[in-house]
Amino acid sequence: xxxxxxxxxxxxxxxxxxxxxxxxxxxxxxxxxxxxxxxxxxxxxxxxxxxxxxxxxxxxxxxxxxxxxxxxxxxxxxxxxxxxxxxxxxxxxxxxxxxxxxxxxxxxxxxxxxxxx
Length: 117
What we know:
Blueprint: E1 3-6, E2 9-12, E3 17-18, H1 44-56, H2 63-70, H3 78-86
Antiparallel strand pairs: 1-2, 2-3
């Protein structure tokens, strides 16, 4: 279903019209949306540094515990660093039932540079 704004109404492609977003019944199954984005880590040290800085702002998390989570600078736990930075914040009127990070390894045949070196 595709929705678009039409004047003061939200019109869905199946001709269902809601006069306002609050028209969704709270006792009915709620619409679900997925946000998807892909990123490539080009500088693991910079990623670790940013995750470390954000982690230091977390109440009750000391340096030793933070390093247990994101790994040491020399060997960062990349997925955990990404999670530290990308985990969704609470959104008014929404619940976030899940959040995950998948690691997609590069194919073995993919060269590391344009010259195959």
